[in-house]
Amino acid sequence: MDPANDQVGTEVVFEDENLRVWILDLPPQASSPWHTHRAPYRYVVTRAGPVATEYQDGRLEYQDDKVGDSCRRSDNEPHRLVNLGDSVYQNVIVEFLDPHG
Known about the structure:
It comes from Plantactinospora soyae. The protein is an all-beta fold. Helices cover 0% and strands 50% of the residues. The protein has no helices and eight strands. The strands form two sheets. A five-stranded antiparallel sheet has the order 1-2-8-3-6, with no helix packed on it.
């Protein structure tokens, strides 16, 4: 576990001084690396499925994400996303790097 990791997605597809945009692809039953968000962010689901956010203390937050579901968060607690489904899960993560942007 490396909670200091700031790789919050699979790949960065856009970045400027205000925003960083990631694609997160999770194969069936896979998880993202443990990571911490360094900036407020919003994610939008582009491939649906059941997932769970796992925290270092063992807590799990279950979600059954649908395409288009979106959430804005500003927490920076170390976590990882686990794909509980039998198909690829995907979302787009937009990090708001400029607190005034």
